[in-house]
Amino acid sequence: MQDRNNLPIGKTEFADLMGRLGPFERQPHLAVGCSGGADSLALTTLLADWIETRGGKLTALIVDHGLRPEAAAEAAQVRRQLRKAGIAAVVLAGSVPRPRRDVQNAARDLRYGLMSDWCRSRRVLHLLLAHHMDDQAETILLRLGRGSGVDGLAAMAPVTERPDVRLLRPLLSVSKSRLLATCRRRRIEPVVDPSNADPAYARVRMRRLMPELAREGMSAARLSSTAARMARARAALERAATELLGETAALFPAGYCRLDRTRFAMAPDEVALRALARLFACLSGADYAPRLESLERLWQALRQDAIGRGRTLAGVRILEQGDAWLVLREQSAMQPAVRLDGPVVWDGRFLASGGAGRAYSLGALGQEGLTALRKAGLDDAAEAVPRVVRPTLPALWSRRRLVSVPHLALDLGAKSGRNLVKVEFLPKRSLGEATFNFS
Fold this sequence. Notes:
alpha+beta; Rossmann fold; Chorismate Mutase Domain, subunit A; 3 domains; 13 helices; 19 strands; globular
């Protein structure tokens, strides 16, 4: 009887794997990252069969990262091979200065950036990646070495929601050996990347340990099962964090939040930390939440009522206000004003549209703006917003002249800027989404 670990993946099995990641739109246009290795070539050819039965379209994205002299030639070779098989393929070229450390991470960030940009510009929703069971096992071991908790040990998610694209990993339950068998069955010749065997990289060293670990019971399949269980725990904790925020947080369109101190302080540590991570990522406009160690120190101070006149973390302030904690953007960390030459995002949180051609810019109200309101006799209109928040409000400027404060519904001067410019609070990370989304 043939060992299942050496069986190629058939069309029916792959359709089941894809079905777990849906739903998909009718006649979908999918993108797939294809390095030319066995993993990505197997995924690409399987996707080509899958998409054909659905009347859709597949585009393979090949990244020439420029980190090795052979990269350009290899990318061209992979494109020729795919086109010969009738699969549309494009090469995305980019470069980063070769870092002294974390070369593989730099290459990964470049790949994701180029592929995500391509998908966004062509309105492609789904980007598929060929990470498999062995990759998942290596990720768990690496994160164990870093002392990771539940989130880290959940490793890579089958579905990762990003602002512009959904990253899908249908092969996380499939072994590397089965992908190699799939390539052999389809007579595909993979490209060999020598860096995948270079012991200078931690992932390669971990890969070499896998056979010995498997003999001790820590096989790729068992480690992958551990990741799946951790992912279930993570999902439950994230739901609890969502409920906590729903019960205790009041988020205002002007970009600040009020937390019910009493109810929030009663939450279990793990749930409260997740809720704080989401809140600080939302109000900072950053791509990522603060580091866990920093959040743990802040949470300890909050629980002990020991924040004094307030604390700052990751460009966000938190301070006591009666029976609440007021959470707001740190003024000194805010982005400088940006010119409105079309729709723009300011401070990672506010989307402004309109006003093009009028020499307007969007920036913080600040003390200069508050002084302008006072001189115009409009101080009272700002009373609805806590005093400490007012300098952080988005304001429309024409050179050094204050034009309007959209969230206070205030206009200064006869030429109304508020009616010409729309400013919405649209942070990169919302309170309603999880921030783990490991890639």
